[in-house]
Structure formats: structure tokens, C-alpha cells
Structure of Glycosyl hydrolase:
Amino acid sequence: MEHKQHTAFPKDFLWGSASAAYQIEGAWDADGKGPSVWDNFVKIPGTTYEGTNGDVAVDHYHRYKEDVKLMADAGLKAYRFSIAWSRIFPTGKGEVNEAGLKFYDDLIDELLKYDIEPLVTLYHWDIPQALMDEYGGWESRQVVEDFTNYSVALFKRYGDRVKYWVSLNEQNIFVSLGYSMALHPPKVTDDKRMYQVNHIANLANASVINAFHEIVKDGKIGPSFAYTPFYPVDTDPKNVLAAENAEDLNGYFWMDIYAWGVYPKTVWRYLEENDLAPTIEPGDMELLASAKPDFMGLNYYQSATAAHNPLDGVGQSNTFNTTGKKGTAEETGIPGLYKKVKNPYVKTTDWDWTIDPDGLHIALRRINSRYQLPILITENGLGAFDKLEDGEVHDAYRIDYLSSHVSAIQAAIDDGVDMLGYCTWSFTDLLSWLNGYQKRYGFVYVDRDISDDAPMTRIPKDSFYWYKKVIETNGKEL
């Protein structure tokens, strides 16, 4: 829609930034922490860029006060971070690790000292290795109980100070990359297992949301979903239908469960026909329907374009562009449903991700219209090869990217979308899961490369000062 004048960002809009424990904390075995699946996975040769890992990461565990002070200097209203499950329960369950709880106590209190709202993510992909060894992690229904008990411990410890919580971060990514594409732990290529894992994760998400509402009465919780809106490549009805197939399979299959507790019938039919449907046990659907998220968390990085793909057409590619060499991404699709094609109207990053702020506007409109839930953007950002020159980083390209996406949020607010906040990815540079330290997202440059023996000096980039002005003016100056 086009409007004669803008609607102002809400006065309490959460201008923030985000991170994940494994990608920033380091201290992988400090103070009683147990290993997560990622601590072991990254040691497998060939799994990450030049063998990079999060043993030290950007040493946030020891430098959190310095990082929070920089957040305060930038004027952040909110900071989203995840808690490492195995830092709290080293074996995933049983005896709690008080030292782990204290670290997050201290981090939360430091944020509140500067009036920065803590947004806590319960799970950002780092399930304790002990649970994987004991019963296969997310492949066992036992994980629902263990994840709920872990989450309840956090609600009781931090619920008096933390209002906003994210249950699962990008469930669609950790189940597909872990169990279909073998790019994440446990390095499996089995779609049948993937959909069963996904169903169990849905049960865990619902269980935790219900527990939260019993314990933290004045708080808000929701899942964080990596949504990529699809367009048809043209107006050919076959291509329009392909885009609908892609939306159902890649978007609504997850968000419908989060909001309503039901699987889309079209996707379920596809799963049954291909012997991929998960096992549904008595009480499952009732549990899923009972959980009511307070918001939909959205991680938005790119849009995608779909075209018709016959039954003998293009199959799924199990590779990503992890080199940063533009144009090396492989064609991918699902026969009989859709294939991804290039969109000539949008530019791409060096990693072949589309740069499409209008896609964010469209995503916000679709989610708002379908689910009637407030939306919290939990991630949005640009990964790039930043260069430190004479002690400075001039990242005008990141400012352009973020500015255009904030403008898209403004347009969505003008259209009546209920927005809670916007968390960029990320505040400091951090470890990219598969791309190491070459792919940088932060407002703050961290002076390190593949070697852990680095100064880790924090250097605000030009984008740091740009975002500070955006926050000061509540989105009026971009």
C-alpha cells in the first residue's frame, strides 16, 4: 500500500540486536559446562570453513561487560541472546550447574543496568551431546520432557527479570540442515527422520510455551522462524502454483503449527504419499493446539523465486555457497512441487542470498494477515567481507542493507502490521556456523580470523553509529 504519511514506530519499539551462545561465548568447557553437539561436530574434518570452531569464538563469556557497554553506547533497547543448554545442565538433565546459571544472571543484570531489555532464546541449535549419545537427541520423545525441565529452570531463575523469550530458534533450519542435508549435526540425509524430528520439536515447543504461561505470568514467548517468502517467476499459473507449493512446504508447514496446532492439508498429503509423514501419537495434536504463542518471531534474510518442477525435474542440492564467491550456489528443488530460480529484479550477496527489503514487507504482511499475531523480527542482517583499514571499518553496504529493511518495517507498520521490535544480526562479529570468521555481520568488528590466538579487539563500524542515530530518532532518521 501507499500512504500519504507514515505511522510512527511504537514508542516502546524494541530496537535491538542478536547473537547465539555457541557463536559468541567461547569458554566451551569452562566452569562446568558440558559439550554440545556443535562442540563435537566442528571437529569433524571438512564440516566448517577452514576448520573454524567456537571453542573461543569472540570470547563473550569473558568480555560480556565490554560488549554490553558497547550496546549501551549504541543505544540498544534490547539484546537477544541464547542460553547454552549444556552450560546449565552439562548432561542435558539432572544436576544443575550453578556457575552456568550465574553467568547468565550476571549478563542479564548487566543489560538491565543500562536499561537494555534482555530477550532470551531457549534453544539455538546446541543440544547437549550427552542427550544425543543417550537417546538420539531430537529423535526421541524423551527430549520433550528434558527440554521442558531445562526451560522451566530458566523461567524460574530469570522470569522476574526477563519478559521476552524465544522458544526454538529456526526449527526449520536445524531440522533440515541436520537431518536432510547433513550440513549440521547429526549429519544425516534422511527426510523421513527429519519430519519425525520436526514433529517432536513441535511437541517440545508447545510444551515449553504452556509451561512458560504457567510460570511467567506477565511475560511473552514465541518461536523464531526463518521465513523466506516465495514469488512465482512469472504469471504462468503453473509457476504461481509452484510458489504456493513452496510457501506451504517451507513456511506454513511450521507457522500453522505454531499458531494453530495443525499441519497444512496439502503438505500432509504430500508427506503421506511419499512415506514421509511423522508418527502421530494420541494427545499430540491436542498438545500442539493448546500452545498459544504471544508473538511470531521472524528471522528474515532473503526471498526466493519458484518455477514449475515436474516429477522428473530438479532435486534438492545438499550444498551451500560457503566460499563467498558469488554465483556458485547450485540449483535446487523438489520434483513435483517447485524449483528455485534466479530473480532478475534483486541483487545478491557474495554468498548468493538475495537482497530484497520488499520481501520483508511482504513477509510481514503475510504473517500478520494469516496469524493475527504481533511480530518480533528476531534476526535480519548482511554477511560481508568487512575490511579493517587504519583502525576503521567503512561498511556503507551494510547501512544501505539495514536502512532499506527498516524502511520495509516502516511500510508494514503503515499497513497496520503489529510490530514489537527489530533485532539485527548481529551486534558484534561472531562465528558463522559454516563460514567461520570471514562472513561478518556485526556493528562491532572483532579483530580475529581463523586463529584463536587473536587480540579480539572490539572496533565499532560505521554502521554502529548509523544504528545509534536510528534508535535515537525512533526510526525517523535512516
